[in-house]
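Quarterly update from the structural biology core.
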Amino acid sequence: MTHWFHRNPLKATAPVSFNYYGVVTIPAATKICNDLRLSRTRLLELFTDSSCNPEMMRNTADLYFSLLQG
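Predicted structure, tokenized:
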């Protein structure tokens, strides 16, 4: 069993750019992809922010997952 998670808890979280330039042609879809990228970045930043409270984390996670679900 590997124990990679003990060294860096966010190591398995790879950056996702949500850049679908050849696929996304509608401006509304481009906006959703940009919002997804920004909300994911903000959510990952909150994991290491010592001033973050559970309400901030919940709101940011809800925003990110609502964008993923449509």
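The chain is about 55% helix and 0% strand.
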